[in-house]
Amino acid sequence: xxEKLNHVAIAVPDLDKAISLYRDVLGxxxxxxxxxxxxxxxxxFVNLGNTKLELLYxxxxxxxxxxxxxxxxxxxxxxxxxxxxDIFKARDQLVEKGMRILGSGExxxxxxxxxxxxxxxxxxxxxxxxxxxI
Length: 134
Description:
The chain is an alpha+beta fold. The protein has one domain: 2,3-Dihydroxybiphenyl 1,2-Dioxygenase, domain 1, CATH 3.10.180. It contains three helices and nine strands; from the N terminus they run E-H-E-E-E-E-H-E-H-E-E-E. A hairpin with a 5-residue loop joins strand 7 and strand 8. The protein is globular and about 45 Å long.
């Protein structure tokens, strides 16, 4: 069902500092900062040869990243994103196996403009999982 790892998302308390760390200290290619109001986040992708890192920063008072950072003030890994060929088929198979889909259960448009779903961390060893249709 899952294909390759698309990205690892890291919640950061200071986006500019995180961008500088990855770009200026580690020499990585960091893409343009993008606001995603529907998800309550501002993101910057760090492009690596085999995957990406998604730097997440809260956008607005109801951002899910804001509450994450209140519990993890230094930031940290927020979720893993895996690619799937058919997000509806993946969702239906997961639900049949008793897994919980967060939100309405319907795909939303993610940061790459593709359909995404999030899976409950309690069903996946305490890790929030994002599925993105390729």
